[in-house]
Design goal:
The protein contains three helices and seven strands. By secondary structure, it is α/β, with parallel strands linked by helices. The chain has a seven-stranded mixed β-sheet with strand order 1-2-3-5-4-6-7. The longest helix has 16 residues.
């Protein structure tokens, strides 16, 4: 499997401006297949662990992605990622974002190939965290993030919980 043969090479940078007395937030950059990157955030509670973890997947769009600190404030590691190979703090340019003409007939050229593998790579990263309890992992998202949550939970048996809303990517036309 291509992803399994790609080292994660996590780059983790502490962000005091996104942290609080209840949680510490870090900007993350992970290696994905074919030289692509997974950009995101991890927020970790500032109390003794181990903790469950939640992967928060984004809705459709080119918008910036912020950290999901609410659940970290309540005692769960949260990882929020973008599905674009682009800095989470910048609007994604049109020439980098997915296009409506992306073919759903060829999984090797469809933009969501890298997005879905990015979700799985984020799970690989969660399992490297010493604060993670190693068992209780959930995925969540709305719209595109809801569809990606369903796909991610279906592909990776390490996911024990899934909450989605208004799942896109579920059209069967």
């Amino acid at each position: 499997n291509q992803l399994a043969n790609t080292p994660i090479h996590p780059q983790v940078t502490y962000r005091a401006d996104k942290s609080s007395n209840k949680q510490s937030t870090y900007k993350i950059l992970l290696d994905n297949i074919e030289g692509k990157k997974v950009h995101g955030w991890v927020s970790i509670p500032n109390c003794p662990g181990p903790f469950p973890a939640i992967l928060d997947l984004p809705p459709f769009g080119r918008q910036t992605i912020g950290p999901s600190t609410d659940m970290a404030n309540r005692g769960a590691i949260t990882v929020a990622i973008s599905v674009h190979d682009y800095d989470v703090e910048q609007m994604v340019p049109d020439n980098i974002a997915y296009k409506p003409q992306d073919s759903f007939k060829d999984r090797n050229t469809n933009y969501f190939k890298w997005s879905i593998l990015g979700c799985l790579r984020a799970i690989d990263f969660i399992f490297t965290l010493e604060q993670f309890d190693g068992q209780n992992l959930g995925v969540t998202g709305v719209s595109q993030g809801g569809g990606l949550s369903i796909i991610t939970a279906g592909l990776d048996n390490r996911v024990k919980y899934m909450v989605q809303g208004l799942a896109a990517l579920s059209q069967h036309h």
